[in-house]
Specification:
5 helices
Length: about 120
């Protein structure tokens, strides 16, 4: 899979803009960055926004976001982003990305992975 610096930048911009749309409660804007498959699943921006509010609070209201290096997960391109949720619990969001026929990148899913506390002792 050949990924250019332009691809890397475009992926980050898409995720940052979707995160900003969530912050602004802009359901239409956030939905626009979802892949056609995700849009078909949720049918409309309101359903999509409700799902994110209910199940993805760190994505809906992140206190901070730090982008990691792109990765390939099960054959799909993924952008890991470290998020600090509104509860101040860090989580890793794996954004699955899908390149569209027009060359733009859309978000084709997001999986939240807990981050083990590195400071806990056994």
């Amino acid at each position: 899979m050949q990924i250019t610096e332009t691809d890397r930048a475009s992926i980050r911009i898409a995720i940052k803009r979707q995160l900003q749309a969530f912050q602004d409660d802009d359901a239409v804007g956030a939905f626009a960055f979802a892949s056609p498959g995700i849009q078909q699943t949720f049918q409309n921006p309101e359903n999509f926004m409700q799902m994110v509010k209910n199940y993805y609070q760190p994505v809906y209201r992140p206190r901070s976001a730090i982008f990691d290096d792109l990765a390939v997960v099960n054959g799909a391109l993924a952008q890991p982003v470290l998020l600090l949720g509104p509860d101040e619990i860090p989580v890793r969001a794996l954004y699955l990305m899908e390149k569209q026929l027009d060359g733009t990148w859309r978000i084709h899913g997001c999986h939240l992975v807990p981050i083990e506390n590195a400071f806990e002792s056994d």
